[in-house]
Amino acid sequence: MTSSNDASVVDRALRIARDSPGELLAIVGPTASGKTSVAVALAEALGGEIISADSVQIYRAFDIGSGKPTATELARGRHHLVGALDPLDHVDAASWAQRAEAAIAEIRARGRVPIVCGGTFLWVKALLFGLAEAPAGNPATRERHRALAATEGRPALHALLREVDGPAAARLHPNDLVRVSRALEVHELTGKKMSALQNEHGFVRARHPARLVGIACEPAVLTGRITVRVRDWLARGWVEEVKALLAAGYGDARAMSSVGYAQVRAAVSGELAVEDLETAIVRATRVFARRQRTWLNHAQVTWLQP
After folding, report:
1. What pTM, to 2 d.p., does this model score?
2. Which of 47, 118, 157, 292 could form a disulfide with 30 if both were Cys (CB 3.0 to 4.6 A apart)?
3. Are 303 and 214 in contact (CB under 8 A)?
């Protein structure tokens, strides 16, 4: 069911979409702002299908804590790139963008309207503008980085990046193992800074003319929505889901280090008191939402206030 606030956003987003025929529509905004419900309503109204731009939803079995579309939402609007990969499969911005390109072509070939929806904005950026040219990943280098992070901690790897590429280190969180490793890998393989390559690229030449529609949400309101959502997910069995994932051998899956899953895993392993779990997830999610808003402040987004 779509709330009256969401309905207002949908109506305005529909006008934007209809005023911009041929442009790719992307629904963005911080986590818990209501992107999925709006995207589903738009898909129904436009004859569209949704391409998920979410780096956790793309994995099978990471269901509750990723906020995957409900059975009702999936019935109302076809989704692509949700539960598409095994949790141990590797996916990055470039490989996701390739999959998204294929989905867009398939959707349009059937006379339908593609709608991108999600909060992994680097992926959206890669789809719309491509990525800076950089060498292919080197498995031996990445394994060496993972070993260092395992023995000395992820901040140790981040410190190495800070020595060779300060701007990249300043942009990346010390716990973001994948992106920190990638930036360090680029420097080790080429002697060039990832930040310099990205600055040269500029992300100004669009591969897809697009309209980015953002779901705005006041911080206090968003905190309330995050709290309600976390409480609901925990009640639905999030802890049990993580236990099952660990038992299935997915402890090293990239998604296990994502916001929320990392805190639940810490509680399961005894590193975090169970009674502190809800507060810890809400706090981490609020920080994540702030980072998302900061990222989007540098993009050309049409913000819609519910």
Report:
1. 0.81
2. 292
3. yes
Distance between CA atoms of residues 155 and 151, nearest Å: 11
DSSP state string for 143-160:
HHHHHHHHHH-HHHHHHH
Round to whole Å and give the CA distance between 161 and 106: 40
Write the Ramachandran bin of 301: left for phi over 0, alpha for psi from -120 to 50, otherwise beta: beta
**What CATH architecture is 219-290?**
Orthogonal Bundle (1.10)
4-132+206-217+300-304 carries CATH number 3.40.710.10: no
Cα separation, 128 vs 126, whole angstroms: 6
Q: Where are the domains of the chain?
A: 4-132+206-217+300-304, 139-201, 219-290
> Is residue 194 a contact partner of residue 186, using CB atoms and an 8 Å limit?
yes
Domain 139-201 belongs to what topology?
Histone, subunit A (1.10.20)
pLDDT digit string, tens, across residues 260-269: 999 999 999 9
Beta strands in the chain (DSSP E): 24-28, 48-52, 79-80, 113-117, 210-215, 301-304
Our CA dihedral for 143, 146, 151, 152, rounded to 10 degrees, sits at: 130
- Maximal CA-CA distance, the chain: 54
